[in-house]
Amino acid sequence: xxxxxxxxxxxxxxxxxxxxxxxxxxxxxxxxxxxxxxxxxxxxxxxxxxxxxxxxxxxxxxxxxxxxxxxxxxxxxxxxxxxxxxxxxxxxxxxxxxxxxxxxxxxxxxxxxxxxxxxxxxxxxxxxxxxxxxxxxxxxxxxxxxxxxxxxxxxxxxxxxxxxxxxxxxxxxxxxxxxxxxxxxxxxxxxxxxxxxxxxxxxxxxxxxxxxxxxxxxxxxxxxxxxxxxxxxxxxxxxxxxxxxxxxxxxxxxxxxxxxxxxxxxxxxxxxxxxxxxxxxxxxxxxxxxxxxxxxxxxxxxxxxxxxxxxxxxxxxxxxxxx
Amino acid sequence: xxxxxxxxxxxxxxxxxxxxxxxxxxxxxxxxxxxxxxxxxxxxxxxxxxxxxxxxxxxxxxxxxxxxxxxxxxxxxxxxxxxxxxxxxxxxxxxxxxxxxxxxxxxxxxxxxxxxxxxxxxxxxxxxxxxxxxxxxxxxxxxxxxxxxxxxxxxxxxxxxxxxxxxxxxxxxxxxxxxxxxxxxxxxxxxxxxxxxxxxxxxxxxxxxxxxxxxxxxxxxxxxxxxxxxxxxxxxxxxxxxxxxxxxxxxxxxxxxxxxxxxxxxxxxxxxxxxxxxxxxxxxxxxxxx
Lengths: 323, 290
Hints:
The complex is a heterodimer of chains A (about 325) and B (about 290).
Chain A: E1 32-43, E2 46-57, E3 61-65, H1 72-79, E4 87-92, H2 102-107, E5 108-111, H3 123-131, H4 140-146, H5 162-174, E6 180-184, H6 192-207, E7 211-216, H7 219-225, E8 228-233, E9 236-241, H8 243-252, E10 254-260, E11 263-269, H9 272-285, E12 295-297, H10 301-308
Parallel strand pairs in A: 3-7, 3-8, 5-6, 6-7
Antiparallel strand pairs in A: 1-2, 1-4, 8-9, 10-11, 10-12
Helix pairs in contact in A: 3-4
Chain B: H1 14-20, H2 24-41, H3 43-64, E1 70-71, E2 78-79, H4 80-111, H5 113-118, H6 124-153, H7 162-186, H8 193-210, H9 222-228, H10 232-244, H11 260-281
Antiparallel strand pairs in B: 1-2
C-alpha cells in the first residue's frame, strides 16, 4: 500500500485522558468499547477460557497475543456474539453480546479467522451486497479501493488469491462503518509485503476512529499495530502492557553465565554490566585476567513472549508474570 | 496498494442506526436477487435442475409410452407421458426446493458463509426469505420448461380451464414453499458439506419411489401408500394428477377422490411445522464449531 497517512498517535491512556465532557452522572467505563471480567468457557473437560479479564478503550487498538489453543478465538467469538459464555461479565459497546440485536451487530465489524465462501459473486457484488445490511454503510467502491482490490472488483471471489481473499474479508468487516472491529489472525498466511500493506490499512481505520481488537500470534504485528498488548496463555491473561513496556522491562533483565570451579554458573540480573564488573573484580582477586566462559544473554522479544506463554523458551530470563 | 482511505465521517448514534436498519422484507428481496445471481452462475447446477425432470419425463415416456400403451379407466385412457407428467412436476418442485436448499445451505454452513452473515445485521428471516424467493423463481422456470416440453414434444394436453390452473397454482405454491422451509430445516442434519449429498439424496429418492412419482401410486402395496401419505411428496404428486389427468382418473386413486382438502392440509402443516423447526434448529455454525 502506498498510502502516506501517518501512523496515528495512540490516544493517551485512560487514566490521563483529556477532561471528560460535562456530564452529571457518567456511566462507569463509558469509554470502554469492550469490558470482560472473569470470562470462562469450557468445551467438555477442556477449559478454553479460564477467568479472563480484558478492557479495550474506545479508539485504541488492542492486540490479544497468544499461542494456538490459548483461548484467543474463543474469547473473541464470545465477544462477537457467536458463543455463549459459561461465566463472567461481558459488555461490548455497552451490551451483552448474547442478547444484543441487529442494531448492535450493525455497530461491530467481524473479520473471522477462516472463511472460504462466496465463490461465484464478484468482489464488487459481494461488498455491495453486504453493505445493504447496514444502516449507514461506507461506499462499497471506496472500501474495495481501500483494501487495494479495485483491480479485482469484477473478479469472482473464487478466483482470488489467499491474500486477496483476506483483504476482501476485511472489506466486508469494515463496510458497515463499525465502531468496533474484530480482526482474528488477519494476516496468517500473508507474505511480508502483503502483511505490511495490511498494516497500513489498519492504520487508516485507526485514523478514522475505529476501535480495533486484534488477535495474532505474530509478535511483530502486535508491536506494529497495537497500543496495548494482552498476552493470553491457557485461557487467561498472563501479561499486559504497551508493546514497548512488555519488551522493555524484560529486555532489561539478562543472564550472565560463567564457569567457576569447573561448573557452569549463571545469574539473572537487571544490571548485567555491574554483574560483569563484580565478576571481573572477584576473578582478578583470584589472579585471573579472564572470567572463564563469560556470556551475557539478552532475551529477544520472542523469548519474552515464549516464556510468558509457557512455551519451550530458549530465552534465559523468567520475567515476572505481570508487567 | 492505494491512497484511498475509507470515509472518515463519525459513526452515527445508536438510535440513528436502529431507526435506519433496513427492513427484513427489503433485505429478503435483496437476498433473493443475490441468490438468483449466484444460482445462475453455478452452471452445472442450472443444467441439472432444469434438465433432470425433462430427461426423466423423456425416459418414462419413451420406455412405457409405446404406441397403444395407455393408462386409465376404459374410455378415459391417457398416454403414459401424460400420466407421468404430474409426477415429474412434483419431483422437479422437490428437487429445486427441498433437495437444493438442504444441500446448498449445508455447504454454506460448512464453508463459513453463514457464520460470516451472522456477523452482520442480516436477520435470519431475510436469509430464509432470500432462499425461498430464489426457489420460487427457479421452480417456476423449471416447471414452465417441463410443461412446454411435455406439450410441444410429447403432445400432452395441458388443462384449458381456469379451475384446474387454480388448483395447479395453489398445489405448486404450497408444495414449493413447504419443500423450501423443510429444506432449510433439513440442512442442519448433514454434519458436513461433503456429506450433504449423501444424506439428502436418498431421502428424496426413497420418497419419489413410494410417493407415486416413478410408479403408479395405486399399484404400490398398501403399507407403502400409508407410509407415503405421511410425507408431502405423495400429496404434491396427487394434486398434480388432479390437474393433468382426466377427472375420471380419480377412480383409480386409492381413496377414489383427489382429496384436495387433505392435500392442502398436509402441505400447510408441513409449511408451518417446517418453519417452526427451521427457526428453532437453524445453525449459523458447523456442528464441530463449538
